[in-house]
Amino acid sequence: MTTDLKPNSRDRLLEAAAALTYREGVGIGIEALCKAAGVSKRSMYQLFASKGELLAASLERRSAAYVAGLLPPDEKDAPRERILHVFEQVILQAADPEFRGCPYLSAEIELKDPDHPASRVARAVKESLTGFFRAESAQGGATDPDLLARQLTLVFDGASARAGIGAEHLDGFLVPTVTALLDAADLR
Amino acid sequence: MTTDLKPNSRDRLLEAAAALTYREGVGIGIEALCKAAGVSKRSMYQLFASKGELLAASLERRSAAYVAGLLPPDEKDAPRERILHVFEQVILQAADPEFRGCPYLSAEIELKDPDHPASRVARAVKESLTGFFRAESAQGGATDPDLLARQLTLVFDGASARAGIGAEHLDGFLVPTVTALLDAADLR
Questions:
Q1: Which residue, among B169, B153, B29, has the nearest Cα to B99 in the 3D structure?
Q2: Residue B3 C-alpha, separation from nearest chain A C-alpha, in angstroms
Q3: In terms of CA atoms, which chain B residue is nearest residue A158?
């Protein structure tokens, strides 16, 4: 027997905000968000202080799954293989015709305000990715793990952005690019 | 004797569109654009069919100067030096507190529509930069000039984006990153 659990207004607003801002940008209007969620504006403002708070909460809610979806399973244990796994996931994501780049980078670029609550969420997500790269780089004996981690984050964002705007195809391109940087850093 | 040449409505609209969309995003309203330009909405629509056309024209108008500002002077003749010159310009641009990344990449990310007239302008600008990288890579004997040109464009966009959102400092970071890729491609 299945229980018919309707997502509540808060969940529906968070889902609508995540989906619509990804597809249309952070400029999407409150009306459109409420309409897509099937929630009145009055209810929305009872749940969230502002559209900015709603956006931040929607990015925050998906952040753990986003990062988990990029990171390698424990079975993969060579740092090089673990780092490349992340980029292989980006290639897979980018193959989806609905792909518009990393949602966290896009949000930060669109908001143009590092102090916006959604920008803070986005920054934390990317910092955790950089932290993963740094730990693996150190584990793999990179000459400068911090430098390599920053380079990999730059490539992650650059690749996501360029594939997201349809300017680049990552298959057969991203792995050799990352490999060149891993080799330059003498990663095992 | 100086002549008091007031820029005309078209020029003022183009300037306002370039400045405001860079600072606030492509979602900036027509009213705000017209107000900043000191031009009536009626006049705006006599000059441009739509806000999209105005945006495209404003990006187009600055494109030659944008690319020229990145490219090396003729005196620099070693391909490696000429390629690095571009990235040194990005470092200089990013040192400006008003820097919000490459305006062409931002416009494409924000518009989320590769067929938008402004996206087409933006793509052409970036393709001309990739073309420069490709020619210099070939000239410098890179093993795969096309691959290297794509890698350099990816780094250009990734660095611009990350510096533009305040997530990265390019000084002391960008040149070693580009150099690693140039070395991997055996560029002289």
A1: B169
A2: 38
A3: B158
Please give the C-alpha separations between residue B71 and each of B60, B64, B77, B82, B171, in angstroms, as whole numbers.
17, 11, 12, 8, 19
Interchain contact, B123 vs A167, CB within 8 Å: yes
Mutate one of B157, B168, B171, B183 to test the A interface: name it (highest A CB count within 10 A). Answer: B157
Can you tell me which residue has the tokens 């250009």?
B156
| pLDDT tens string A119-161 | 999 999 999 999 999 999 999 999 999 999 999 999 999 999 9
pLDDT in tens, B8-33: 999 999 999 999 999 999 999 999 99
Under an 8 A CB cutoff, do A162 and B157 touch? yes
Nearest CA-CA distance, residue A175 and chain B, Å: 11
Which amino acid does the sequence have at A157?
A: D
Distance separating alpha carbons of residues A181 and A69, to the nearest angstrom: 23
Nearest-by-Cβ selection for B184 from A23, A100, A184: A184
A184 contact B CB<8A? yes
A67 closest CA partner among A10, A132, A134: A132
Q: How far is CA A38 from CA A17, A25, A131, in A?
A: 12, 20, 39
Of B161, B164, B181, nearest to A180 by CB-CB distance is B181
Sign of the Cα torsion B77, B80, B81, B83 reads positive
CA A50 vs CA A77, B21, B133: distances in Å = 44, 23, 45
Tell me the one-letter amino acid at A124. A
> Whole-model pTM above 0.90?
yes
pLDDT of residue A93: 97
What number of C-beta contacts closer than 8 Å exist between A and B?
116
DSSP letters for A135-179: HHHHHTT-SSHHHHHHHHHHHHHHHHHHHHTTS---TTTHHHHHH
Q: How far is CA B81 from CA A148, A151, A182, B155, B185, in A?
A: 23, 21, 23, 16, 15
Whether chain A has a CB inside 8 Å of the CB on B123: the answer is yes
